[in-house]
Amino acid sequence: MPQPPLLQRLGTAPRIAGGMRDRKAGYSELQLMKERFSKLLLGEDMSGGGKGVSTAAAISNAITNLYATVFGSCHRLEPLPVEKRSMWRREMDCLLSVCDYIVEFFPSKEVLPDGAIREVMATRPRSDIYVNLPALEKLDDMLLEILDGFQKTEFWYLNDKGHKDSSDDSAPCRPASHRGEERWWLPVPCVTKLGLTESARRDLRQKHDCASQIHKAAMAINNGILAEIKIPESYTQTLPKCGRASVGDAIYRHMSFPGKFAPEYLLDCLEISSEHEALEAADLVEAAMHVWRRKANHGHSRSPWSAVKDLMESDKNVMLASRAEDVLLCLKQRFPGLSQTTLDASKIQHNKDVGQAILESYSRVLESLAYTIVTCIDDVLFADESARKI
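^ thats the sequence. predicted structure below, dont judge the formating
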């Protein structure tokens, strides 16, 4: 007897053999999935009072929460536990299955049994989903493959192994970390006194480069999706009337200078040292960017002189908006783990497009996982370098 499609997706169909315990486990998983999807359908309002969020926001939150459940404690370079890997695959498969029904129509031709040809409207996946979803699934597989490659390693984490005799060359060296007081709760990697072997070091660097490229690809997809989401009215109402008032006089003087503009030099002058300061600067620059864009698109035609004056001001606003975008991009490159800006969070919260919500949240969590892997590899390479200097 064929399994129902939903049970096939969930991977929790009743087993013919395997005992009562397996059947109970499958039943409990199915009940859990039913509960979660009921929560999605009700917009996370299980009371049924109609106070839930939109379907797009509910699915976005579901993907974010699933990522936190599966990878929230992923601070070590090791394979993902089997049960968590199964949960990630099963539940993401269900959440992504919504995209199967987000289609667009296109003209096509159909051949009838008598040989006649008639024009019909066929369906295909919406273009943004058709392009981005397979790419994200490939990046997902690559990240899990990187984690699977850390089964037998020459490094370990503090308190993972007992200390050996310090007279032995293979004894663990003193744990080294470059984080200082920041993120003190994360595990510290350890290597032997001699450090890693050349082959292990080479393998780590290859994985580091691969994870870095995945991070850039996921970030590019996420930025593209966020750029397509409409700016909420609630955000535009909070924008200042003047972009200069948003960024301040010092930044404005740098950005309005008629010569060549270097966003890296501007950020060096600001001396931003923490992600909190970077996020605050990003919010201010992004708000000013949209103020200048809005002014550049706003035309007047009261008189010939007014038209010329407006054209000159429009050109300046276009320049300022372009430079603000460069500063924003440079900020994100310097701080790859930067949290969502106020605009991004507002777009995600008020977005009604389910397809965009899935692509945005999926790319965001993959970007976060890739960044975590990169930083973990950096920690191990730092420990190796410190051991070889002793």
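The longest helix spans residues 354-389.
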